[in-house]
Recover the amino acids of this structure.
């Protein structure tokens, strides 16, 4: 299949490479010359414009920074430029309202579209083990599933347009809360004289077990390798977690929900980012919770 891929950053670059590995012909576009060079090295065909990338494409996949850019790229550079009937898959994490707006515009222009944000981070993007939460009509999901499966290990249909974004925002708010609680527990355990590895051995198989302990432990040298073992570099940047929390709280307000723990998590990550840690992995917040 000929696939256009728009947005080749830390996540998109690995995702596009996995589409090539799966046998697809990928035409790639990014504003960064370096990103295009890396995409070319992984087997993609670099393009100078979005229009060039989507010409003749059977599917268009995007991984972009925010909703404003997604709206602009699809509204001005994809709809009407990609072949009629092409499948559109936006894997960016954006607000639910924009996801629904763009999907409606795509439908009116004759395209099937899904919102398919991801969970898993940079390593999973490179390894092809992402989880996709997909919003869109059933027939669009059926077409999107094999494309997404080439980039991930789990593809779940969350519901109609926007449902993928809703699932992603709820999930990441929960992750932010879990990580803070995990960091506080490890800090407290150490203050009480418990060895971190011993506490891990206990908590990872007890009622406090969660993904932040077993798969992404914030303590160096404990559990599977995580950004904590690389001075909290790589992984999921604090700025991105803060972005997702901000989107989640906006969605909560619109839905009439008052997530007290989510609000507190956002306050803590906002302070952490403003203290010069925006580019560090979000688990580095353990340094402030002792």
């Amino acid at each position: 299949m000929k696939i256009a891929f728009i947005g080749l950053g830390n996540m998109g670059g690995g995702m596009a490479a996995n589409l090539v590995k799966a046998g697809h012909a990928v035409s790639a576009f990014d504003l960064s010359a370096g990103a295009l060079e890396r995409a070319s090295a992984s087997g993609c065909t670099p393009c100078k414009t979005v229009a060039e990338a989507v010409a003749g494409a059977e599917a268009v996949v995007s991984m972009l920074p925010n909703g404003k850019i997604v709206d602009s790229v699809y509204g001005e550079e994809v709809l009407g430029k990609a072949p009629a009937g092409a499948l559109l898959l936006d894997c960016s994490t954006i607000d639910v309202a924009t996801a629904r707006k763009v999907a409606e515009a795509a439908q009116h222009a004759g395209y099937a579209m899904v919102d398919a944000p991801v969970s898993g981070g940079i390593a999973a993007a490179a390894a092809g083990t992402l989880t996709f939460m997909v919003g869109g009509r059933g027939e669009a999901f059926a077409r999107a599933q094999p494309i997404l499966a080439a980039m991930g290990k789990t593809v779940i249909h969350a519901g109609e347009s926007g449902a993928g974004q809703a699932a992603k925002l709820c999930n990441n708010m929960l992750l932010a809360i879990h990580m803070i609680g995990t960091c506080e527990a490890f800090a407290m355990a150490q203050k009480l004289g418990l060895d971190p590895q011993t506490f891990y051995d206990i908590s990872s198989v007890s009622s406090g077990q969660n993904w932040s302990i077993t798969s992404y432990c914030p303590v160096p040298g404990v559990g599977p390798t995580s950004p904590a073992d690389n001075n909290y570099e790589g992984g999921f940047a604090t700025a991105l977690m803060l972005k997702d929390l901000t989107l989640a709280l906006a969605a909560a307000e619109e839905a009439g929900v008052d997530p007290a723990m989510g609000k507190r998590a956002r306050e803590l990550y906002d302070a952490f980012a403003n203290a010069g840690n925006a580019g560090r992995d979000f688990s580095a917040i353990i340094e402030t919770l002792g």
